[in-house]
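Human: Note token order:
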Amino acid sequence: MPTLPAFQERPEHFPQHVLRETGTLRLRDDVLQDRRRVEGITIDGPTTKDIDDAIFLERTEKGYRITVSIADVTSLVSKDSYVDTEALSRLLTRYHRNHTVPMLPRKLSEDALSLVPRQDRPAISVTVELGPDLAIVATNIEETVLHSTKQFNYYEADRAIGDEQHAHHALLSDCDHLARRLLAKRRERGALALYDFRKMLMTTEEGQLQPIKKSQAYRANVVVQEFMVLANEAVARFCAEHDVPLLYRNQQANTVAPQRTIIVEQIDNILRHPEGFNLQTEQAKLTMWFRRAEYGPNVEGHYALNVPAYTHFTSPLRRYPDIVDHRIIKAHLREEAPPYNLEELTAIAQYINAGVRGIIDAREEQYKERDRNTMRSVLVQDTIRKLPEAEFQRALERAAKEGLWSTAFEEEVLSRFDTLRPVDLYYILLVAPTTEQWAALKQHVRNALARRPHDAIQVLTLAGQSGREWRLPEFEVQDLAGSFAARTIVEIERKLLSTATFAVAGTKKDAKSLAAHSFVTGYLDNTLVPPEQTRMPKELQVQHITKSAAPPEENVIGQLHELCQARKWPAPVLDASNAGGPSHAPTFTGTAKISIGGKEYASGNCSAATKHDAKKLAAQELLRVLRTLPPPQQQEDPATRSTTAASSEVLQENAIGKLHELCQKRRWKNPWIDAEQTGGQANIPVFTGLAIVTIGGTEYSSDECNGGTKQDAKQLAAQNLLHKLKEWKL
């Protein structure tokens, strides 16, 4: 094994001895003559030259037969050769903005081994038989000769999917349909899998959320992703069942991770309520919950994919572990001795894991250093006032971690205090240095936390998930017959600490919130004690958390506006004003009102620590009142009755209700159904309806359906989608 080099940008050019050896590599005739010939198509980026995977799909009586053919690198690159050793030292191909540093010499990766169209290339083909429920029925792996009949880029493949006249339409249309079902199936089994074109969000193989780039915004991207995931899973399962040692791809969750169902629900909530979503916050949370996936010779399972066995097999031109797996599998197929013993395979896995970690860590450090320099410039130049919300939150995090401060920064934090999240409070209280410059901000947050003690639990949880010397908080609650006493216990720097006294409240939830707040205060004041020294207060004074301290978490302001729009009421008026209090801890009073048919409806005065929370409480109160009112009666224009009658014959059944029932039965998200006027005249309008169901992160939509009323158009769209779902066997 070569010594792992310290991370540095690998030169794009290869050493002369590697190039000389590359020049001698030729495919012998006998390498191809005994192999079965298979066909397939390739789908890659428009500039891709190192093409290492091809796909083909056939329908069977019971399901599908998928063939994924992968470039057979080991047919030319021998173990421990100069080319092999150089590839190991590079580990993978690195893609930069303006250039690429390949793992293999370009003569191999972009020519001799690349699956270019209309040329025979050595390949290893994985054929997977899927049953009607898309379960893997059988897997076959063999050495083949791949003949690529067509090279598509993602844009071209999408056009072929939508063009019934295209020569490859039938194949790609079937691939598209199956890929959507595979993605939905993975979601149903608990995988953290998402590819949402409406919200432009996707998950990586390791369950990390990231925005969909323009180059990834094609249905063909989903096809390639799902087929490769399936192939990698099938190969791993095949090898595990046959006791073949392999470089398995394993991922575990950290002990701080919540249950899988909670994580899936949180991802679903992001799609339902994107207005309250911050990508960086969610990414940081997921990073805390999951370990990085690593290679190893034993099957340990992959958490994000939720499969017992997984590997990397489909990118040998760009990723060295795939080359190792190809050698092992070919030896098994030929009934030869394994090319690596367990000790060697373990050493290779450790080497690759360390190398990949080094690459990732160095890249992240470069990003962080660039971030630090940018934020220092922002603080010094007082440009922080112009930052949008997401960039401001990053600036606050960086300022706290680096101990950066300026007068303009402090003023801007105070001016945006209404929108600070618990993670921002955590950075200010527990991460920022205890210097005189930060003292005023810390005191301001402490005062706010006293009014919002429920945030203290999240602050302590974030501290426990941060990777610092903190562990997650534990709560001890005692029932005092009519009230509850609670204390918080946290391990910090290997010492268990708690508060001097229990917090007492009327409910368990309030007691835990107050105990968490007491712990944060005690930590900052250095008054925490070992758990055995915690005492019950001499006078059991029950504390209550007022309504204003816990504003609703859901977007009630948006819900209020939606209700008013749906019932054709005027827009509600929301307001909040300063009701007093010291400058560092003001109190705001919010109101919400609306005039309907000459009658005014209004909330009471709702108090909160911020303007936004006061408005939310007021909106919640008014929403509760308005929901009790009957919806306005819709008067049908006699002139439209003929159009309505024409479609009502089709709508004897409540298609919208049936679609909702189907979604509930299958545990899918509620359907999105809407219609708008698209033509006709004032007295005889034409409405066009559309229905969409999201299944496993993939959208399935109806055709555009016309009706004489908005409701008819929606019913027709729902009915159309029901027929499509039945046809698609979903």
